[in-house]
Structures are given as C-alpha cells and as structure tokens.
Specification:
The structure is a single chain. The chain has 722 residues and is of the alpha+beta class. 42% of the residues lie in helices and 13% in strands. It has 26 helices and 18 strands. Strands 5, 6, 7, 8, 9, 10, 11 and 12 form an 8-stranded mixed β-sheet that branches. A 4-stranded antiparallel β-sheet has the order 1-2-3-4, with helices on one face. Strand 13 and strand 14 (495-501) form a beta hairpin.
C-alpha cells in the first residue's frame, strides 16, 4: 500500500515510544516547546505537520491547531475520508489530540524527504552562499554537500531546497541591485581617490550606462595600455545590458582589464560616452584601439579618440568569409591558402599586398562581390601591411584577446544575474585574474629557465624577460644559432649590411650601425612584436655580443620589477584591499581544527561523540537560544554574501530588458547564420536529394545544384534572378 495516498476506510494509529507520544492534557513551557515536541513525534511516526489555525485574546495566543500536512478537504465530490485526519490542539492550559490517521505513515527510507526533516540550518545557508559566490549551481552544490555530510540521508535538504535558497538570495536584491552597486562604488570612492565611476539614468531614473575603474586597473593601463582591445559581450545579466571591458596583454602575454562598462544601447552615443569617461579617467588616450566592424564603435572612435589609430578585428572579418564567398570557393583549398597568405601576412608592404589582392580577386573572379570590394576600400583598417610602421602593431591583429577575455568572464558571469550579482562576480573574476598574474610574477622571481645554448646573451635575456616571453625569444635565439646563414655581406665605414637566409627560405637585409652599436632587420619583428628576431641574434653571435644592449631591453615584456610604463608612471595612491580579516583568519583556524579532528578520529566513534558533546557544551555556554536560523541572521548572511547593504531608499532603478543585436522575442523568430545552420545540420541524419542524387542535408526544394542551374538559365534569358 503506497504511503503517499490516503486509503478509503483505513484508520491508522501511529506507534511510537511512550516518551515522545503526546498525551491529552499535557502542558508545555511555551508554544515553541510544544511545536518542537510535536515535530519530534511526527518524525518518529512518519508524517509531516503544518500550523493551521490560531486564536488570540488581547495579543495572547490561547488556542493553536497543528495538523498533518495532508489534512484538508478536497475540492469535488470526493468523500471526506480521503483527507488526512490527525493533529493536536494547544489551548491556554492543556493539549487535546486526535490520534488516528486515514493514511499510512511515511516509510523509513522516504522520511528524509519530509519537510520536517529538511531544515536548512546555518551550515546549509553558509555553504549555499559560499557556493553561490564561487558561481556553483544548486545541483553541484547539493552533490558536494552530500559528500561532506556523509550521504543523502544526512544531507538534510534536496536540490529544490538549495534552488529555493538561491532564489531567496536573488530576491533580496530585487529592485535594489543597481542602488546597492552605486552605493558600494561611492564607498570605494571615499576610501580611494583612484577609484572612478560614472553612471547615467533616463527620465525614469533607470540606469542606462555605467563605467568604473579602480586604481590597479589605472596602473595596469599606464603600464601596458598602448594598444587597447574593446569588445561588447552579451548575456551577462538579467537586463541584457551590454558588458564592455577594455582589455590588453600584460608583460606575461596574459589578458589584463583596464576598465569596464555597462550600456543599454549599441549606438554611437553610448560608446562615445564610455570612451570619454575612459580617457578622462586615464588621462591619456591609447595609441591604437582594436574593435569589430560595428558602425557605432567606429563613429564614436572618430568622434572621441581623434589621435588613436583604429583597427578592425581580423577574426570577425574572416569569420564571415564562409557566408560571403561563392560555394565553389569554399571547397577550393588553393583559394583558402592564397587568401590567408595575402591578408594575414605582416611581412608584405602595402603595395605588395594591393598587388597580391588584385591578382587574387581577378584570378578567382571576385570583382562583382560587394563584400570583397568593401573590404578592399577599408583595407587600412584591418590589413597587417598597413600597420608595419606602428610599434607593436602586429601584437593584436584581432580582438581574440577580448574573445578569450569574454570567455574568461563567462566562467564567472551568469545570464540571469542581477546587477549586484554581476558586479560581485566581476570582482571575483578580477581577483582571479590578478592572482594569476601574481603567481606568474612569483614564478619569474624564483625559477631559473633551462637554457638551450651556451650563448651568454641567452642567459642574460633569461634574467630580463618574463618566462612566457623568454620562451619565444629563446626560439629566435636557437633559430639564429642553428639555421641562419649569410648569403652576402657588405662592409662600410659605419654600417655593415648582411643578407641573411633562414629556415623558411626567406632572405632579409640586416644592418649593423657601428656608430651607436644598433641593429635593424628588414623583417621588423622588434617593431611589430617587441622582441628581437633570429637574424639579429645571429649577428650577436658572430659579433661576440655578451649582453643584449639596453636599447632592446626597454620593451613591455620585461619582468615586472624591470618593466617600464608605456604612458608614464601612475602616481595616485592605491587602496590596498586586505584579502582576509581577523574573523576570517580565526574561522579558517576553526575549520582546519574541525576537519583535522574528524580526519584523525573518523574511525573512533566514541572520540567523535565526545568531540560533538564538547562542542555542543561549548556552544551552549557561549550562546543561548535555538539553533534555527532566524530571519535577521539570514539577512546578515545574505548581506555578507553581496558585501553590500540593501538601501532604505532607491534613487536609481534597474533598467528594462535591453534589446540588442540578435535579440528575438522567441527562438523561432531569430535568424541563424549559415555557420549555425551547418552545425545544426550535423546533428540531423543525411538524406538523398532527388535533384542531384547526392546524400546530404538538403532536398530538391533547396538543392544548391538546382538553384545554380536555375540562376544560369535565367541569366541566359537576359532576366534578373529574383
């Protein structure tokens, strides 16, 4: 007989030990004692309870009814016997009770799912908050909690309970999230003048734009901000505000964030607002900015960043190649190789590129494709040949640094997060990023690279450059030592000129100016990437150079103590945030002692019982009251989770949901690209087309062969195809 359904005509009398069974007329010290007593009884026999009715006289409770949670009348013609009938009534002086049930008790193996056995205490709430802070979802949180507490029976909750607790965390900041973030930023501004933030609201006092930057970001910008990558990221918050970080590479080649913004619009005005505050905050504009082909960004850059070189992301352009070129070329490997060699090469001069491009377009009959013509018209925005004269111009040819940074942020940011959660998770991501950089600095300070040659300038370089960059320099040194050769040599009074060949069968002219002992190579690797090429290292070996000259040790790839700022030193005093306080230190000690004891005596039950009893006695001596988490304590824990207090009044309200590029009211109305369609087709079984008799993901209605034949037929008739 199932325990979950009442049974008609059945009367069940619960059985339990006499000491936990309620007795008519039994008295209690308070209502709380009565409720606790009856909960113990209900769990012992196997049913849940709920408080149903009460009566007060002059604010004094004189009558209270607690019943089985299945008590009640079913709507319809069903007999009243279908309803559970058990409960007790607490009067001012005594207790009266109905002791019979019309449904079986919950079986022992199912009792852990009863609501009376699923109480989230302080341990649960603390653990859920910690997991939420680490961006761990409810399901994984429950799995870890189950392992910590020893199994499903001892978890004390379900995934649904954890999901509801996570919902309550979000509900705490509902409608207050923007004001909470602005108040926290104002507090940081009071603590440190280096912290900067600006925001903008509409006529309804709703947030439409937000920009912020702390002191460490400013210092990093002055160190590495000669070239900035700017990209927009979507689906990072519940309002669909566009997340726009300013990023770059640091001296380890790792992404570093300079500032961040949230905007509700992708128009020129929104981006111009961000750029103006970015320049005002930093005090100096970047020398180059890399973006995608967004027209709003381009117009904003032309309006605000007047002296900054603008470059388009090559990855975004090449990503569209499969959609823009004719199908016949997509299967042509020779075309792909030729096109990539033409547009990606940073060794071609502008006139060489133009000649190669025109040959390629003419050879593959691409003159009438507007997309190619437009790209050629704007070639100075994206082709590497036009950035050969720009220092470090080849280091960021795409916004891949932003793409990787966006992917990094997506590990922390959640699409349904409110602004307070977004800001909290963003700060966690920045902490993670800075900790990674600190670890790399530690590695540079303590480790000694393995040398590949016996050349003295290689050992000298290992003491100057970061480990990640020294590996690239070491490859150039090995290339110059083992594979470079002299093709011709011409000596002058002040300048020696070498014509060197390398393993790639390229020949470059290398000059050695003896007046200032400077070297220059036709490949311009030092100017493009900031480190010397194999051809110059070959001359170092031939000229018995012991150390790398100082003029080549001023690049951005130096170890952090030796690195020089590209925009001048940052002078503002930085606010040092303590990663832990005394309370956290003591808490760590307590947790370490607790788990250490459990680990040491996990096989000794008597020792564990003594430990639990000792901790319980200590807790009772320090604190009085029940162990149930109160509303005030829950609020305190949630405030500690956010690190921000919910304000009494709200001056700036959250925005409405923003409609961005690609927004659609439903998935059915959202247009998909050919690439997305191809990915979707791979999950479908292939079929044979009756038009071309080929097996694929099309039929005679959309057969590309038939479509091409129809187009040619119409063209022969002199008609324009629809």
């Amino acid at each position: 007989m199932a325990a979950c359904a009442p049974v008609i005509g059945v009367v069940v009398v619960p059985e339990c030990p006499p000491e936990v069974k309620p007795v008519v007329g039994q008295k209690f010290q308070s209502l709380d004692f009565a409720f606790a007593f009856y909960d113990v009884y209900a769990r012992a026999v196997g049913f849940d309870t709920r408080k149903q009715a009460m009566r007060k006289v002059e604010d004094v409770t004189i009558w209270y009814q607690v019943v089985c949670n299945r008590e009640g009348r079913k709507k319809g013609e069903a007999d009243d016997q279908l309803n559970a009938r058990s409960g007790f009534t607490i009067k001012r002086r005594k207790l009266s009770k109905r002791s019979s049930m019309n449904h079986p008790m919950v079986e022992t193996e199912h009792q852990r799912f009863m609501s009376s056995n699923r109480k989230l205490d302080d341990v649960h709430h603390k653990f859920i908050l910690d997991c939420s802070r680490a961006n761990i979802g409810p399901t994984l949180t429950f799995k870890v909690l189950k392992e910590i507490l020893g199994g499903f029976d001892l978890a004390g909750c379900t995934v649904g309970d954890i999901r509801n607790a996570s919902r309550d965390i979000k509900a705490y900041a509902q409608g207050f999230d923007v004001q909470m973030v602005l108040d926290d930023m104002a507090r940081k501004k009071e603590m440190s003048e280096a912290f900067t933030y600006h925001y903008e609201v509409n006529e309804s006092d709703q947030l439409v734009a937000l920009f912020w930057c702390d002191g460490v970001m400013k210092r990093n910008y002055h160190m590495f901000g000669d070239i900035v990558s700017f990209d927009s990221t979507y689906n990072t918050n519940r309002y669909c505000m566009i997340f726009t970080p300013f990023t770059r590479k640091d001296n380890h080649g790792s992404p570093v964030t300079f500032a961040a913004g949230l905007v509700c619009s992708e128009k020129t005005g929104a981006f111009a607002w961000l750029f103006r505050h970015f320049i005002h905050c930093m005090g100096v504009a970047p020398r180059m900015i890399v973006t995608d082909q967004d027209l709003g960004m381009r117009s904003a850059i032309e309006e605000v960043l007047v002296g900054t070189r603008h470059r388009w992301c090559m990855w975004h352009i090449m990503h569209k190649l499969a959609v823009k070129v004719p199908n016949r070329l997509l299967r042509d490997d020779d075309f792909k190789k030729e096109f990539n060699a033409c547009v990606w090469s940073d060794l071609l001069e502008p006139d060489e590129f133009e000649e190669e491009w025109n040959r390629l377009v003419k050879h593959h009959q691409l003159e009438d494709i507007d997309w190619f013509n437009t790209l050629y018209a704007y070639r100075k925005y994206w082709i590497p040949a036009y950035f050969r004269d720009f220092p470090m111009g080849s280091m960021i040819r795409t916004t891949s640094i932003s793409e990787s940074e966006n992917s990094f942020y997506k590990n922390f940011l959640k699409p349904r997060a409110n602004i307070a959660e977004f800001y909290l998770n963003f700060n966690h991501a920045i902490e993670f990023q800075r900790n990674s950089r600190t670890a790399l600095d530690y590695h540079d300070a303590t480790s000694i690279p393995i040398l590949a040659t016996t050349l003295p300038f290689e050992k000298h370089g290992s003491t100057l450059f970061t480990d990640s960059m020294f590996r690239k320099i070491q490859e150039e040194i090995v290339e110059g030592n083992d594979r470079c050769r002299v093709l011709s040599f011409m000596s002058g009074e002040t300048v020696d000129t070498y014509n060197l060949g390398d393993s790639k069968r390229n020949a470059y002219s290398v000059r050695h100016d003896k007046t200032d002992d400077s070297y220059s190579c036709e490949c311009k690797l030092f100017g493009r990437h900031g480190y010397l090429c194999s051809h110059i290292f070959f001359l170092f070996r031939n000229n018995v150079v012991k150390k790398i000259p100082d003029k080549y040790c001023e690049s951005r790839w130096m170890k952090t103590p030796l690195a020089k700022a590209v925009h001048g030193e940052f002078q503002d005093r930085l606010l040092t945030y303590s990663s832990s306080d005394n309370r956290q230190t003591v808490s760590k000690q307590a947790i370490s002692m607790f788990y250490g004891f459990l680990r040491q005596f996990e096989t000794d039950v008597d020792a564990l019982r003594a430990f639990v009893a000792g901790v319980e006695d200590l807790g009772n001596s320090i604190q009085t009251g029940t162990s149930v988490t109160s509303v005030a304590e829950k609020r305190r824990m949630v405030e500690e989770f956010y690190g921000m207090v919910r304000p009494e009044t709200v001056a700036v309200h959250p925005p409405d949901v923003v409609k961005t590029k690609g927004y659609a009211s439903s998935s059915a109305s959202c247009l998909i690209s050919k690439r997305e369609k191809a990915i979707k087709d791979t999950t479908r079984p292939p079929r044979r087309c009756k038009g071309c008799d080929e097996v694929g993901h099309h039929d005679s209605r959309n057969c590309p062969v038939l479509k091409e034949m129809r187009t040619e037929k119409v063209a022969r008739k002199g008609k324009n195809p629809a």
